[in-house]
Design goal:
Blueprint (H helix, E strand, L loop, with lengths): L6 E5 L6 H14 L7 E5 L2 H11 L5 E4 L16 H6 L4 E4 L2 H5 L5 H13 L3 E6 L3 H5 L3 H13 L10 E5 L13 H18 L10 E4 L4 H8 L6 E4 L6 H15 L4
Parallel strand pairs: 1-2, 1-8, 2-3, 3-4, 4-5, 5-6, 6-7, 7-8
Helix pairs in contact: 1-2, 5-7, 7-8, 9-10
The protein binds 2-phosphoglycolic acid.
């Protein structure tokens, strides 16, 4: 991917009304002026997107949806399609978040259908993968990552590294305050990179961008962003407070020393 700045993505989950999200976005626009070395992406709930895009107009801060349906339109009560997201100013969508997989029982086959639908509609994708605690404990982390990547990316001939980013999010670290150790995160990122090269021979390993997610906060951002192979963060809880979110971005900018 040509843009080598760390991605600092905010996954608000089911938090913030459109008004609250708008105020956050307005504050972020001012605070982000000093942070050209990171790439901000906000993922509000679907109801906030249309309003929040206004606050981000003419700025470098990008917007995305937290989920989407694979169909363009149809009788799917409660769902949102890729064209609906793009019409609200989205350039991104999160697919396969562990809460979608485990609470809403999304399958790899369902996730697989969404990825080309998103890309075809012009959306860039953050695909989330990660093992559960019992899987880490029984030593099957790498198998789980391989199974998810194989299942989710099946049928793709090439890996569009400039438009498809992987977020490694160990399920046991999400919203728990327990963050992966640098060793655990570094190993998993290296495994993801190697599996992608296995699945897509010829893909230069450095081309794939891999984010870390799971209890990232300003207190642990420095040690995580320094790990080779971590290209940014997908942040839940700590992204709800604009000052804490910006602090993580500041730390990431300093630690990665990307020339802007
Ligand atoms: P967390 O969530 O930062 O609250 O752990 C991360 C995520 O689910 O993307």
């Amino acid at each position: 991917m040509s843009d080598s700045r760390p991605i600092i993505a905010a996954n608000w989950k089911m938090h913030k009304t459109p008004q609250e999200g708008y105020r956050f976005a307005q504050q972020l626009v001012t605070k982000a002026l000093n942070l050209p070395g990171v790439r901000f992406i906000l993922f509000p709930s679907a109801t906030g997107l249309f309003h929040i895009q206004d606050a981000l107009k003419d700025t470098a801060i990008e917007l995305g949806g937290q989920n989407m349906h694979a169909a363009q339109e149809g009788a799917y009560t409660g769902e949102t399609s890729a064209p609906m997201l793009t019409a609200c100013g989205c350039r991104w969508v999160i697919i396969g978040h562990s809460e979608r997989r485990h609470i809403f029982h999304e399958t790899d086959a369902g996730i697989r259908a969404k990825i080309p639908a998103a890309l075809d509609a012009g959306l860039n994708v953050i695909l989330c993968i990660g093992e559960r605690l019992e899987e880490r404990r029984d030593g099957s982390t790498e198998d789980i990552l391989r199974r998810q990547l194989q299942g989710d990316l099946a049928g793709m001939e090439t890996f569009p590294a400039d438009r498809l980013i992987i977020a490694y999010e160990p399920v046991w670290a999400i919203g728990t305050g327990v963050v992966a150790t640098p060793k655990q995160a570094g190993e998993a990122h290296a495994q993801v990179r190697a599996i992608l090269q296995e699945l897509f021979p010829g893909l230069p390993g450095d081309d794939a961008k891999i984010l870390y997610g799971g209890s990232v906060k300003s207190a642990n951002a420095a040690q995580l962003i320094q790990i080779p192979g971590i290209d940014g963060f997908l942040i839940g809880g700590a992204s709800l407070d604009v000052d804490e979110y910006v602090k993580i971005a500041e730390i990431s900018q300093i630690e990665t020393k990307v020339e802007s």
